[in-house]
């Protein structure tokens, strides 16, 4: 299978790329810089630029592109960047799919559990209604844009939560863990074992 990925260099995208390639699939990576390797293709989602003929070659498209949510604080300006980065990427992909003679069979679009809002103590499922707040509104707009894919293309919006791994939510915790370990090691070295 040939899979076109927007956001292939991110934490989730890198792991997905590695697993797809290990399983024998071909990955086409969309990059914002000039392509430097085989399988890389330039796009400029903020300008809605992409070679739409890539869609004729892809069996599936995965969209994981967007400004990081781990950057703080979320000022009004950065919230606009978070929203526009996701909508621009998604619209660029769905527009290209609609122009393709043979659009991909499936479009997997990243999304977030932020759709449900902050509702402590409530049991939430995929059928739960939208919450309120910035993240809920963001996800609603993002998923609406994904469903602009052509009718022939099945759309799956994947609502991920906090992502822990090499980077992601674990990244800000690692320096404190390392410094705690170093302090403990120094204390043990000065007092001797046991």
pLDDT average, as an integer? 88
Task: Provide the CATH topology of the largest domain.
Answer: Rossmann fold
When the domains are counted, the total is 2
Lateral strand order in the biggest sheet: 3-2-1-4-5-6
Question: CATH-wise, what's the superfamily of the largest domain?
Answer: NAD(P)-binding Rossmann-like Domain
Q: In angstroms, what is the radius of gyration?
A: 20 Å
Residue ranges: pLDDT <50 for 5 or more in a row? 181-194
Please describe the biggest sheet, giving its number of strands, its sense, and whether it closes into a barrel: 6 strands, parallel
What proportion strand? 15-25%
- CATH class designation of the largest domain: Alpha Beta
Q: Percent of residues in helical segments?
A: 25-40%
What is the terminal separation in angstroms? 57 Å
Let me know the number of strands.
Answer: 8
**Envelope shape:** globular
Order of helices and strands: EHEEHEHEHEEEH
How large is the count of helical segments? 5
| CATH architectural label of the largest domain | 3-Layer(aba) Sandwich
The structure class reads alpha/beta
Provide a concise account of the structure shown.
The chain has 194 residues and is α/β, with parallel strands linked by helices. The chain is built from five helices and eight strands. The chain folds into two domains: 2-161, Rossmann fold (3-Layer(aba) Sandwich); 163-194.
Q: How is this structure best described in words?
A:
- With 194 residues, the chain is α/β, with parallel strands linked by helices.
- The chain has two domains: 2-161, NAD(P)-binding Rossmann-like Domain (Rossmann fold), CATH 3.40.50.720; 163-194.
- It has helices at residues 11-22, 54-57, 76-99, 134-146, 174-191, and strands spanning 2-6, 26-31, 40-42, 60-63, 106-112, 154-160, 164-165, 167-168.
- Helix 3 runs parallel beside helix 4.
- The relative contact order is 0.13.
């Amino acid at each position: 299978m040939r899979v076109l990925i927007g956001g292939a260099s991110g934490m989730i995208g890198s792991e997905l790329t590695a697993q797809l390639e290990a399983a024998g699939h071909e990955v086409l990576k969309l990059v914002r810089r000039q392509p430097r390797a085989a399988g890389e293709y330039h796009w400029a989602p903020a300008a809605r630029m992409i070679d739409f003929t890539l869609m004729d070659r892809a069996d599936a498209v995965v969209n994981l592109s967007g400004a990081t949510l781990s950057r703080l604080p979320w000022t009004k300006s950065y919230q606009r960047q978070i929203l526009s980065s996701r909508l621009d990427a998604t619209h660029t992909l769905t527009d290209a799919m609609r122009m393709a003679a043979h659009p991909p069979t499936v479009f997997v679009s990243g999304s977030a559990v932020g759709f449900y809002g902050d509702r402590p103590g409530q049991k939430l499922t995929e059928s739960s209604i939208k919450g309120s707040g910035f993240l809920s509104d963001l996800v609603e707009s993002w998923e609406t844009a994904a469903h602009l894919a052509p009718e022939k293309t099945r759309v799956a919006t994947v609502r991920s939560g906090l992502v822990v791994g090499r980077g992601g939510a674990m990244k800000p915790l690692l320096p404190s863990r390392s410094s705690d370990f170093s302090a403990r090691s120094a204390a043990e070295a000065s007092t001797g074992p046991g």
